[in-house]
Q: What sequence folds into this?
């Protein structure tokens, strides 16, 4: 994870909240850290598998589906979470909120024929 207070995405570039989460490659077993924008939904964090509107899901999306128990760093705090894909009703409710967080997500959705998934990171107790 990044050092406390460090963000790979410069705050001047995005006004949206940013986190870093770890995922494990399903075949390689390699752990990777990915910085992303997020939207809060109560205690949950919602991240967007947009890949800039490309036709395929980002690699981290597949990693989280294979290994949903992971950690996320928000500011200086590292939290254990479980990732799950938002169901259709959750996506309908949350999509306008993530677009308010970062308006380019709407452009990305228009650019691709795939429905961009929302991934919900739910807090879990430490092991």
A:
């Amino acid at each position: 994870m990044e050092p406390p207070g460090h963000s790979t995405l410069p705050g001047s570039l995005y006004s949206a909240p940013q986190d870093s989460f770890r995922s494990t490659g399903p075949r390689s077993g390699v752990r990777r850290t990915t910085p992303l924008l997020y939207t809060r939904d109560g205690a949950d964090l919602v991240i967007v598998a947009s890949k800039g509107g490309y036709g395929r899901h980002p690699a981290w999306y597949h990693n989280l589906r294979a290994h949903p128990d992971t950690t996320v760093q928000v500011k200086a705090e590292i939290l254990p979470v479980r990732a799950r894909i938002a169901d259709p009703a959750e996506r309908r409710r949350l999509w306008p909120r993530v677009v308010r967080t970062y308006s380019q997500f709407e452009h990305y959705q228009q650019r691709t024929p795939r429905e961009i998934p929302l991934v919900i990171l739910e807090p879990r107790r430490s092991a």
